[in-house]
Specification:
By secondary structure, the protein is mostly beta strands. An 8-stranded antiparallel barrel has the order 1-2-3-4-5-8-9-11. Strands 6-7-10 form a 3-stranded antiparallel sheet, covered by helices on one side. A hairpin with a 2-residue loop joins strand 2 and strand 3. The longest helix is centred in the N-terminal third of the chain and has 19 residues. The two termini are 39 Å apart.
């Protein structure tokens, strides 16, 4: 009889532990997922530049809408994006599709190959619009609903002309290739941290 009681207590304790050990991305009926995130982002061809801020607003359990602004080598950069998640509560693997916009720069002087050799050339960097597709993986951080992510993707320019030469120079093929690399677009790599600032979801983590 005593053995049966001990066995029953052991099974009950294991069931209780299993309930408390649910994966962090599982939602519950009584505690909602976070409703608003504030993010700090960085990367190469990142949607909001070398360093930027963004907001992420969950629409439903597996979809969120986000927007952000930041600094880039082609002026200020801002974007809008829709993201779909495999994990609930906006965790695990995700894919995003969006549009970014670089404001450009009225004047940029840099050394670049020209028909006169390597010269200091003055450019006007024109505003650029890009469409991008990104893949993400989100990791839970702590017990407050915060998230860390890694990102990789590709950005395609929609603008036909990227710059104007303001000085008396003509670029060589090598010089034009350099400017093609510098203009927004191409491989995108990034990382960032999103803070749960909604106050909801804290007790679930």
């Amino acid at each position: 009889m005593r053995i049966k009681m001990l066995l029953a207590l052991f099974i009950a304790s294991q069931c209780s532990f299993a309930q408390k050990s649910k994966p962090y991305y599982k939602s519950t009926n009584d505690v909602p997922c976070p409703k608003f995130y504030l993010g700090l982002n960085t990367g190469l061809e990142n949607p909001n530049g070398i360093l930027g801020l963004s907001i992420d607003v969950p629409v439903v359990e597996h979809i969120s809408a986000r927007a952000g602004v930041g600094l880039s080598s082609w002026g200020y950069k801002f974007y809008g994006e829709g993201v779909g998640y495999l994990g609930s509560c906006h965790r695990s693997w995700a894919a995003g599709l969006g549009v970014s916009r670089n404001t450009g720069l009225s004047k940029l002087e840099t050394t670049i190959p020209t028909t006169k050799g390597d010269q200091d050339v003055t450019f006007e960097l024109l505003p650029q619009t890009n469409v991008f597709l990104n893949l993400y993986h989100y990791f839970n951080v702590g017990r407050k609903g915060n998230r860390f992510y890694l990102q990789a993707g590709y950005s395609v320019p929609l603008s036909s002309k990227a710059y104007k030469i303001k000085s008396d120079h003509t670029l060589t093929d090598d010089g034009e290739a350099v400017m093609k690399v510098l203009r927004p677009g191409g491989l995108s790599l990034g990382l960032g941290f999103y803070f749960n600032v909604s106050g909801s979801g804290n007790s679930r983590y």
